[in-house]
Amino acid sequence: MSGWIVFWLTNIFIIGLILVSIVHPKYKTSIPYDVSSMILAVLLLICIVIIQVVVGLSIKKLHKNVYWSVVLFAIGIISNWLYLIPAIWGMIINKQKADET
């Protein structure tokens, strides 16, 4: 549950940033003003979308096996520290399941 909360808060934050950039175009730092900045912004946005898709899959399959917990843990270290909470929780639950069987 905590993983989904962090996931949706992160997505709302990303969408909010995009909307602020569109609504306030007078700030040079919010909207890319040349071709190289635009390319960099698009590549960064694509990377963020890919990371969020992987995070969504990881959270959905968190209790299936340890692999998804490790993926979420790595993403938590790299991008959003709040993903460490569900990742560690998933590792604990998967370890308990492995011990029971």
From TrEMBL:
<feature type="transmembrane region" description="Helical">
    <location>
        <begin position="65"/>
        <end position="85"/>
    </location>
</feature>
<feature type="transmembrane region" description="Helical">
    <location>
        <begin position="35"/>
        <end position="59"/>
    </location>
</feature>
<protein>
    <submittedName>
        <fullName>Uncharacterized protein</fullName>
    </submittedName>
</protein>
<feature type="transmembrane region" description="Helical">
    <location>
        <begin position="6"/>
        <end position="23"/>
    </location>
</feature>
<keyword id="KW-0812">Transmembrane</keyword>
<keyword id="KW-1133">Transmembrane helix</keyword>
<keyword id="KW-0472">Membrane</keyword>
